[in-house]
Amino acid sequence: IGTPSHSLRVGGAVKASADLDLAALKQLTPHDSGPTTVVCASGATMGKADNYRGVLLTEVLKHVGIKLDGHKDDRRMVIVARATDDYVVTFSWNELFNTSIGKEVLVAWEKDGQPLSAKEGQLLLISGQDIKTGPRHVRWLNRIEVVRMP
Ligand SMILES: Nc1nc2c(c(=O)[nH]1)N[C@H]1C(S)=C(S)[C@@H](COP(=O)(O)O)O[C@H]1N2
Ligand SMILES: [Mo]
Asked: Exposure pattern of 9-30 as b/e (b: 16+ CB <10 Å)?
C-alpha cells in the first residue's frame, strides 16, 4: 500500500531537478485521455474511466529538460516512473518521443472530472496504448528518474 502522492520529483539526467506539485503540473498543457480501461496482466478488467485529465509525460520531460551530452544521447535514456510504495515501471526515450505510445502516457490528477482519491494515488501515471494497461498504471506516482545507460 502506498501513501498518497501530492507532487512529482523529476531527477537524474535532467538539466535541473524539479519537484512539481499539482499547481506546477497544472501550469503545463493539459491533456485528456478519453475512455480508458485498466486491464491487469492476467486479463482481468480492474476499472474503467471516461476520462483522465493530466499532462503528458513528454511535456513534463520537455519542461524539465533532459540533459544530453551529445546529439546521440537521447536514445540511451531510460525513464523510470516510481510510486510511494516503490512500484516501478520503465519507458525508453524512443518509446516516449519516437513512437505513438508517448502520445498517451499521462501524469493524471483527475478522473471523470473528480480529483483522484487517496486510494487511486492522488497522482497516477497511465500508458493508454499498452495492450494491458494495468502494469503501467502507476498509482501514487511521485518520482520520474531519467537514467543515462552507460
Ligand atoms: N503504485 C502501484 N501502482 C500499481 C500497482 C501497485 O502495486 N502499486 N499495481 C498495478 C496492477 S498489478 C494493476 S492490475 C493496476 C490495477 O489498478 P487498480 O488496482 O487501481 O484498479 O494497478 C497497477 N498499479
Ligand atoms: Mo495487475
From this structure: ebebbbeeebebeeeebeebee
Over residues 104-135, the pLDDT tens digits come to: 999 999 999 999 999 999 999 999 999 999 99
Q: Strands 141-148 and 77-83: what pairing?
A: antiparallel
Q: Please tell me the distance from the alpha carbon of residue 138 to that of residue 135, in angstroms, as a whole number.
A: 8
Helix extents (H) in the chain: 22-25, 57-64, 93-98
Atom 19 of ligand 1 has which residue's CA nearest to it? 46
Decide whether any atom of ligand 1 lies within 6 Å of the 49 Cβ.
Answer: no
Mean pLDDT of the chain: 98
pTM over 0.85? The answer is yes
For ligand 1, say whether the CB of 139 is within 6 Å of any of its atoms. Answer: yes
CA distances from 81 to 86, 91, 114, 133 (A): 9, 8, 23, 15
Distance CA 25, CA 142 (A): 12
DSSP for 87-105, written as a single string: -EEEEEHHHHHHSGGGGGE
